[in-house]
Amino acid sequence: MKFHHIRDVLAVAETGSLRAAGRQLGITQPAITRSIRDIENDLGAPLFERSTNGVTLTPIGEVFVRRAAMIQSEMRRARDEVNQLKGHFVGQVSLAISPGAALSLVPSILANFRKRYPETLLRLTESFFQPIEKSVISGEIDFFVGAYDHELSTTSLSVEKLYDNQRVIIARRGHPLVQARTLADLAKAQWIRPSFANRPDEVDFSVMFERAGLPAPKITVHTCSTLMTLLAIANSDLLTMLPLQWVESDWTRDIVEPIFLEDVTSTCAPLCIVRRSDVPLTPVAEHLSDMSRKAAMNYHLDKRQNDQPSIRMLKAG
Q: Which of 150, 162, 253, 257 could form a disulfide with 296 if both were Cys (CB 3.0 to 4.6 A apart)?
């Protein structure tokens, strides 16, 4: 088995077609076909099921692809690490980051990274942890920055807590209910439930209202992306509940604002750096992790020094 066999299997699995895999890799379809046949003969088992619509992985193929993805990632890391240790800061580094963390941290991280490593490819993925956990484990993603709940992961990973997080009710700027002080003041409001949230109970407004002895909230819109949620909030009188970073970012503070209630205090999963504990990061990825840590520390300190007085003023109303 050679490395090009692994490369070809992963390309076919990704594209679902021998022809498409060949185009992606810049080689002919017969060459891809021979490569797949060679590795299947070597393993003594079929990796793909062929049909008129393309190819799909067999159960054995799915197991093989998981291992192959890890091998490919480690080979890429090995090449990058050797080059970086020689002073050639090339290759790539992959960071997955949650939406709230992206709003508050990415501008600083990106500026510092591009200044320090102009020749390195930075791959950014917006995601919560659960959808990309396997990619972190396989090495496809170097590390994750964002809300992390230990209860949602069954894998042993290195987790570094950056700071605790808070959720707030969010409305468009100038919303008629921004002066509300109790949950009862919002009893007639309509709500957005973002289905992309880290865990279902973090957007379960029903629990919040039930605990206050109020009728269930009227949820009229479901969203599945950061952009759709911001568009819906900014262009309606709908409310939602999301981490505080959503109203503190320079990109959003002019279009949305928080509603702080005297009878509602809501925390959410802390912001963390999550990475594999068994494999070291490349030098550049390690430095990107340091940049993320420093950006989070600066954000948290600025929030404590500057934003808390304004929050108390809002609460005093």
A: 162
